[in-house]
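Appendix B, example 12.
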Amino acid sequence: MKSAKQALSELKEGNKRYISGEAKSRSHESIRRETAGGQQPFAIILGCSDSRVPAELVFDQGVGDLFVIRVAGNIVAPSQIGSVEFAAEQFGTPLVVVLAHSKCGAVEATINELNRPSENRSPNLKAIVDRVQPSVQTLMEANPNLDGDLLLHHAVRANCRASAYQLRHGSRILEQLIDEGTLEVVAAEYDLVSGVVEFFD
């Protein structure tokens, strides 16, 4: 199994290949056969459900390489924490990447809700907004002059940092693995235009 540092390097190299259009050529049939009996993912990706951010493509990885959890707004709720715990314990996966993306709709919806609260929001959508809200509200209160695209950019990162923090400090299992030096949690943002993933936390 790769170390967290090696896993992070492999993701960065894969993203470079993705951007340059030089993705690895691989036989999916042979990979399916190789991984049918088990998996050994070297990174866990907690990303947004946005259809434009498929982690395996963005990082140029194949079947069995990544344990991907996707949810709108890359929020952290008990089911996401449990999924990360499972992969980290079961497979010894050393790296978790919370992968946000530019112009995230869930974050934008949260900004809109803070500016103009609505009464008819679906309770299920509200549950997502409620998890994004604390980091975005703190940002907006501390920076009242931020607005438009700049506000959204900073809010996406604030939400991503908050999710990474929750994973680092919201699970006894994950905290122990981090303390032992066998797990690392990092935050990153994918740019929808350039395709670049920037690791910033």
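The domain at 4-199 is CATH 3.40.1050.10 (Beta-carbonic Anhydrase; Chain A). The mean pLDDT is 94.
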